[in-house]
Amino acid sequence: MPSITWAENYSSNNGNSASTTIEQAFTPTYTATQDAAAKVWRMGVASIGGGVDITVHTGASRDPVSLPPTTQAEAADAVTVMKAYYTRGSRGTWHTEAASRAHEEHHFREWKCSAEHYWAIAGPAIAALTAPVAGNANAAAAVATMRPAADAKVTSFKAAARSYWMTLSDSAGSRPFAAGQAVLNTSITHVQTLAASKSWVVPAGTTATSGTEPPCYQPFAAYTP
Asked: How far apart are CA 146 and CA 131, in angstroms?
């Protein structure tokens, strides 16, 4: 059974709304193999593709690297705001596109491990489908006969994976915010270095988190395709 082939479609803009990671439809390619002894065609999956559309919105936030602070007050504010991202659970007036992208790509990692878990169950169930040789003259005809049942199992597995995905926290202190904070810490250090060069006083240190691993940490629900 083939593994899922993954794709990421990324874009960003200066909108003010929350960034998003939206799953794409799964696209299986089916095959059929004739079992002459059993007088049936057996369904197969040649490939299956999946992915996400990630959109990062950067509006209402100032990037401290491309538009660095120009005063001690701004520098102190930038460090304070960025250090609180993980515990606040939202981007602030100082933030970076890279940090938001890391947050959203962690959601992609969650979707991957969730979908791959349930595909390992659904894939063999699709491979167990058969169609009689009688009435199905070739592989294409057999695939057409079995496709509705196979597509239903793909729909079922996606629903199970999405249901699990929604159990993973996206609140303050959660793994996606830890992923973003890890990137943001680099920008915090950048501002602190700038401040030191100008003898500005700003908060010291960066923000420690509980980490990002594993992306799928809740128990998986039982599933029958």
From this structure: 7
Chain segment 10-26, per-residue pLDDT in tens? 999 999 999 999 999 99
Surface-to-core class of residue 111, CB atoms within 10 Å of its CB (0-12 exposed, 13-18 middle, 19+ buried): buried
For the record, the structure tokens of 121 come out as 């169950």
Per-residue pLDDT of 89-148, as tens digits, reads 999 999 999 999 999 999 999 999 999 999 999 999 999 999 999 999 999 999 999 999
pTM above 0.85, yes or no: yes
With 0-12 CB in 10 A as exposed, 13-18 as middle and 19+ as buried, what is 86?
buried
CB atoms within 10 A of CB 139: 15
Which residues lie closer than 8 Å to 129 by C-beta, 6 or more apart? Answer: 42, 43, 146, 149, 150
| Residue 55 Cα distances to 7, 18, 124, 177, 221, angstroms | 14, 9, 34, 16, 29
Tell me the CA distances in angstroms from 11 to 49, 101, 186, 201, one per residue in order: 20, 10, 22, 36
User: Is the CB of residue 176 less than 8 Å from the CB of residue 170?
Assistant: yes
**How do 4-13 and 40-57 pair as beta strands?**
parallel
